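In this section we walk through a basic example: taking a raw amino acid sequence and producing a predicted 3D structure, encoded as discrete structure tokens. The instruction is simple. Fold the sequence below.
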Amino acid sequence: MTGESKRKLLTIAYWVFLSYIIAALVWWFFSLYSQNMAMYRLRREHLTTATTSPAYSAELADIENTRRRNNAKYIGEGGTFLLLILIGAVFIYRSVRGQLRAQQQQQNFVMAITHELKTPISVARLNLETLQRYRLDEAKKEKLVNITLQETMRLDSLINNILISSQLDGHSYQAAREDLSFSALVQDVTQQFAGRYTERRLERSIEDDIDIHGDPLLLKLLVSNLLENANKYSPRDRPIYLSLQRADGRTELQVRDEGPGISHDERKNIFKKFYRIGNEQTRKTKGTGLGLYLCKKIAEDHQGRIRVENNQPQGSNFAVSFPA
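The resulting token sequence is shown next.
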């Protein structure tokens, strides 16, 4: 039985059980209400036939008060139990649903990270074995070495994402805040990106002399993850656009692509940890679901904010805004 089938089965069992409890509560209420009315009628009939004293009115008032008190008691108790059941049901449903979702996301993460770790290791091993076994000319050697370096850099980036994500979540990361040239930092990251993906066209517009107070490692990771995300989801023959400029008293970094874009329904989820669009079993794009999550954490850690918009005519535009 798949995870989706288990979730559906648990959901059905939950609603059946909750419906049974509510039905039992309603049956209990109407049963007590009916008994109270039956007792009221019997006492009233007995009073009519047996009571001839001047206390008739007082006895009748006492019967009426008893009926009203019992009805109020049943309504109050039943309403209180129903409210508690509904509150508990909502709490349990949300908790279990959150746990199941987290479990599924962790399973997806394990599947993705296994593939992401194996691929660069396998490529690097194959290239090194090729260099060891065969006599190759210098051009082929250089090509294999460059590919191996790219895969090791990709592996290093992946490990950094995992480690820093864990440290930020555990509040154990020691930020190295300093005044730095954000323009030079972005320029350096884009050059490294262009060197790794020589076939990808990257159009840059980086304003000079933009400074920022922050952690250089985290900021490099932010820019790198945005570029990697655009590279994964846009066609190979289409360019990626990066711009860094001052706007309205703030520093704004934008990374735009011409991929399929992101629907409005998905935009509220893409910055969640482990979240990835589509099904882990069928999607073809690489990733672990940590890149955009880290981008949001890093932006907020630097008093900035990140947003995603439509790129024209198609694609996505990720914009990060920092205070000047």
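Looking at the output, two observations stand out. The chain is about 65% helix and 15% strand. Helices lie at 3-50, 56-133, 138-169, 182-196, 216-233, 264-267, 291-301. In the next section we compare this with other chains.
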